[in-house]
Amino acid sequence: MSTSPPEQRADRADDPLDRLPLRERKKLKTRRAIQQHALRLFEEQGYDATTVEQIAAAAEISPSTFFRYFPTKEDVVVSDEYDPVMARMLREQPADLPPVEALRRVLRDLLPEMFAADQETVLARVRLTASVPSVRSRTFEAMRAGTQAMLREVIAERAGRRPDDLDADALAWAVVGVLMSAMYAWMDGVVEVGDMADLIDHNLAFLAAGCPL
Question: Which residues form the HTH tetR-type domain (predicted)?
Fold first, then answer.
């Protein structure tokens, strides 16, 4: 795992974080720094042997500050800053684009940037998700409260529907399923990490076409 300072990584010109407003970037840089220290300690000591107090000490913050950014230790693995980036990019897509096509355009831009800026972090998080049951359970909860809820809101907004629209909710869950399918394909060794973006785009095209078999 890279030991380059999180601050330097977060300031890279091609970092997707640069798409966010300054106030959000500052907060998310702090989250990223805490996460980097946590992932390093998990690799060195093991997930179960690493405490929140140790993570906080490494990040030079108090445990109470840690919990302001991450409600649980599992969340320091599960959480990332890409949901607000994705939401912002989706809202910038042409209004007449169907929702899945809009999402394909966003991810074709975002995923290469994400892997270029954060590949080691992404892989470390996926490995922990695959190997730690509590993290795997929290991942599903976070998907529901984070990515799925964001997608439902933006899909409904673009369609001129209520935020709790059931059709938007169903489509958002279908998209989450596509993302999780690609993640498990990588964890099972079916695809290489470099093929993830293409697989996600293929799966979204398959979804948009009505899943013809």
Answer: 28-88
Flag whether 136 is in a domain. Answer: yes
C-beta of residue 42 within 8 angstroms of C-beta of residue 50? yes
State the pTM of this model.
Answer: 0.76
* Residue 56 three-state SS: helix
Query: What are the tens digits of pLDDT across the range 56-94?
Result: 999 999 999 999 999 999 999 988 778 888 999 999 999
Long-range CB contacts (< 8 A, 24+ apart) of 192-201? 193/115, 193/119, 193/122, 193/123, 194/115, 196/111, 196/115, 197/107, 197/108, 197/111, 197/112, 197/115, 200/107, 200/111, 201/104, 201/107, 201/108
Which helix (H) or strand (E) segment holds residue 164: the answer is none
CATH value at residue 149: 1.10.357.10
Q: Does some domain include residue 213?
A: no
Query: What are 84-138's pLDDT values in tens digits?
Result: 889 999 999 999 999 999 999 999 988 888 777 777 888 888 889 888 999 988 8
Number of structural domains, the chain?
Answer: 1
Residue 188 located in a structural domain: yes
- Domain range for 63: 6-208
